[in-house]
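Write out this protein's structure.
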Amino acid sequence: MSIAQDVIRIAKAEEGYQESWSNGHWTNHEKYAAQVPGLAWVSEDEEPWCGVFTSWVAMQAGAASLYPRTASCAEGVAWFRARGRFSEFPVIGGQIFFGPGGGTHTGLVISYTDSTVTTVSGNTNVNGSAEGDGVYVKTYQRKSSYVYGYGIPAFPEGVVLADPAWKGRAGVTYFGHEAGPADIPRGGSTVTRYAEFPGPAWFRSAPRSALVEAMGRRLVAEGCSAYSEGPGPQWTDADRQSYAKWQRKRGFSGTDADGWPGRSTWDALRVPAV
């Protein structure tokens, strides 16, 4: 299965999830923000979470580096523009942006036709609102003024899109009229994907995540275990002790081998994406 297909599969599996309900109203408290390094504040502050959902899906698919990690739709647009990967035409598995400047709402593209684009997004509702209660699959008119544009992820298997300006480029499958997940090249299935370093502050927050367990398993495989049981998804002192062993194995000492992960040792550990 390609990365783009993984993105769509993971996003669609969340359809029907709803944020919490309290005192007669939806609260914007949801499960995704706490699992995305740097974005826990979104749920804590009861902020809109459509961008968080997209970032979470990207992480789960091992594609975090292919999408912006932000709660701001406008920042997401800027991220793709800065890389020359923004279009007014849909792309399968790409990020769609709505409203003036693309700053109102965002989601992921599942399929498109000449006249419609079907998406999955968080913080919407049955009406496709930019402020809703959960994860929904919705179909919009492609030429609606509400649709601002699309970010084009740099999928290693290539992209499927409707932008004629991209026709003929390497790694591009151009379908101008309609396309869906079945049209995605499968070349990405052999690509090994590793987890992006979530940042030192994330570990100090004592996270509970499948990423912690994946890290622990790699530490065990490298002969750096300090676990009496596990590893498991909850960050513990045993994880820190094990990581310190890995740092020392990589030649670090003193405060550079204190067990708090850093980028260079994390990249060398090659933790599989989860």
